[in-house]
Write a structure and sequence with these properties.
Blueprint (H helix, E strand, L loop, with lengths): L1 H24 L2 H10 L9 H20 L3 H25 L4
Keywords: Membrane, Transmembrane, Transmembrane helix
Organism: Photobacterium phosphoreum
Protein name: Sugar transporter SemiSWEET
Length: 98
Amino acid sequence: MITRFKHFAAAFEPFMLLMGVVGPLATLPQLYKLFFSHSEHALGLSLTTWVLYALLAALWAVYGFVHKNPPIWVGNSLGFLMDMAMVIGIFWHTGGTF
């Protein structure tokens, strides 16, 4: 039973690495709206929320790197970049409201 679980876990690893890349890319439509199509709505976005998302992603990325777990560090590193792009966009368009 334990061997079967380990085999499943090993087979699941590449899929989770893919999900770690795909997940943060879900932020791209929000970034597009923020920077190109609906930037006038930036005041409706929470700078605090996106800063916290970026901080959490950075911490998870470090955790994944320390534990040599690519699905964690790759996905969260990309997530950190997406979150920081949101932070920059919100700050750019609002001057830094929280």
